[in-house]
Design brief:
alpha/beta; 3-stranded antiparallel β-sheet; 19 helices
């Protein structure tokens, strides 16, 4: 565990406004590296993520993980008093993170122009479906829509079947990562270049679009529309999923020139290893079906463990398709502390993912799990001069 004085974001104050995934996940990443994150939640129910997926005593396991190291403040931003309290907190903040529909914060006087006048040094991360501008900016947006608009959904699945979605909210997570990158860039600019605060405008669909590789250059230059290709990687060969004798699958990536030669020799196809047509990737792509057929013919004769063992011995990148159980038992995950044991409030043990990335001198850490709704309300309000009697009155009024 890292002492608080060694965390890289010690002293950075973050106000999180929003719910569910994109905004809160961005704030979670900052919290894991020492930022003081105050999460504003609506009184009564709080963030809906608290009750998403599998629950323990009414609280989501996901909540305990994603909201670790955050302080929970209940505050009704729809009330005048609630907004005044938010402004007082934001005066003292370095970063605000929000993922409301574009325009909502402006409608209640908490938009960028309002807050930057209040705190000229403020950095504001704004994550929304379509960004703060453009003809679609006021539309609601979720990761599934963003993944479709960004081009990912069209490429996911097999060509003879409808497109499928990735099994996690990838659009949200990508937007979170871009939001954190933007916040850290803005923080560096403010501190190193004596710059002013600024806002970071992250659109979910643009976060997906940003990782779509050569999709647009190829269309622009050639009119080429990339299509679904199942488990293979179009334009790169061989890289695919191959069936094994025990009804499992092996992922094999033999797509560099040297690795391809080693792969072919390992499966007893020295003839293909020496075939001049297959010496480079462009030639292999032309004969990808033949190569995949040769690999599958070999893998289907052996159990998956033997396939992986023989390919690893030949220094060919390969692997199995991991389930949660496989991840949990894997020695690589354990060696790198990527499965960490904690206790829930009632003492029940729980394992959470370790923190990424790993910093050699100032690593991140989990100091506490996702908090009870409003757990830090008194503490946070006391920091801006609101005493216990005032908090009690605010509770009566439903403001906190």
């Amino acid at each position: 565990m890292t002492s608080e004085n060694q965390t890289p974001l010690r002293g950075v104050k973050v106000i999180e406004m929003g719910s569910l995934i994109a905004g809160p996940f961005a704030a979670a990443l900052l919290a894991q590296f020492g930022a003081e994150v105050v999460k504003i939640e609506a009184p009564g129910g709080g963030d809906p993520l608290r009750t998403w997926r599998k629950l323990h005593n009414g609280t989501s396991y996901w909540w305990y993980s994603q909201s670790r190291n955050k302080k929970s403040l209940t505050l009704d931003l729809k009330s005048k008093q609630g907004r005044e309290i938010a402004r007082e907190l934001i005066k003292r903040a370095d970063i605000v993170i929000e993922n409301f529909r574009a325009g909502w914060l402006e409608s209640v006087g908490l938009g960028w122009e309002d807050l930057s006048r209040l705190n000229p040094a403020l950095i504001m991360v704004r994550i929304s479906g379509y960004g703060q501008t453009g003809p679609y900016h006021s539309r609601p947006g979720f990761a599934a829509i963003a993944e479709s608009m960004g081009g990912l959904r069209y490429l996911s699945g097999f060509p003879d079947r409808p497109p499928v979605r990735v099994g996690v909210s990838l659009g949200d997570s990508l937007a979170s990562l871009y939001g954190v990158i933007g916040a850290l860039l803005a923080l560096h600019h403010r501190q190193t270049n004596r710059g002013r605060g600024q806002f970071i405008d992250v659109a979910l669909y643009e976060a997906v679009f940003g990782v779509m590789e050569s999709l647009i250059p190829e269309f622009s230059a050639l009119g080429h529309v990339r299509e679904r290709a199942g488990a293979s990687l179009p334009g790169i060969s061989p890289s695919n999923t191959y069936p094994c004798k025990d009804q499992r699958y092996a992922i094999v990536a033999g797509n560099s020139d040297g690795i391809f030669v080693r792969l072919m020799r390992a499966i007893g196809r020295g003839d293909l290893a020496e075939d001049p047509r297959l010496a480079r990737n462009d030639g292999r792509v032309e004969h990808a079906a033949m190569i995949d057929e040769a690999i599958a013919a070999w893998t289907s004769q052996h159990d998956s463990a033997e396939v992986l063992s023989r390919l690893e011995a030949a220094d060919v990148p390969c692997g199995k398709i991991y389930t949660a159980a496989d991840i949990y038992e894997d020695r690589q995950y354990r060696a790198r502390d990527m499965i960490q044991r904690f206790s829930l409030p009632d003492g029940t043990p729980i394992d959470l993912p370790g923190i990424v990335p790993k910093l050699s001198e100032t690593p991140g850490e989990t100091r506490w799990l996702g908090p009870v709704l409003g757990e830090h309300t008194e503490e946070v309000l006391a920091s801006i001069g609101i005493d216990a009697a005032e908090v009690a009155e605010l509770r009566k009024q439903g403001v906190v």
